[in-house]
Write a structure and sequence with these properties.
Blueprint (H helix, E strand, L loop, with lengths): L1 H16 L1 H15 L1 H12 L2 H12 L2 H26 L1
Helix pairs in contact: 2-5, 3-4
Length: about 90
């Protein structure tokens, strides 16, 4: 079992070194630290249902969020492929 854990850590290290994963983490940090997006989230929480939809559309169309969601999907697909390979063994 120790070998499996060791290999898992090696896989994580390899994944972390991939440009896709590095870019994903970079953009996630930008999204999480964006003052504009934090303010927009606060407005969404306080908004009535009519305003909320407009604010959500604004949030979801923000370039950082669009980029983040695209990268998130690419990472998800990549990890899914890895899972499928591992499960074949």
């Amino acid at each position: 079992m120790d070998k499996v854990i060791e290999l898992t850590y090696e896989l994580k290290k390899e994944l972390d070194s991939l440009p896709l994963f590095q870019e994903y983490k970079r953009v996630k940090t930008l999204v999480d630290s964006s003052i504009d997006l934090k303010e927009l989230k606060a407005k969404i929480v306080k908004a009535d249902s009519k305003s909320k939809k407009q604010l959500l559309d604004e949030y979801n169309s923000h370039p950082l969020v669009v980029n983040y969601k695209q990268l998130e999907e690419e990472v998800r697909v990549y990890l899914q492929e890895i899972c499928e390979i591992i499960n074949k063994k």
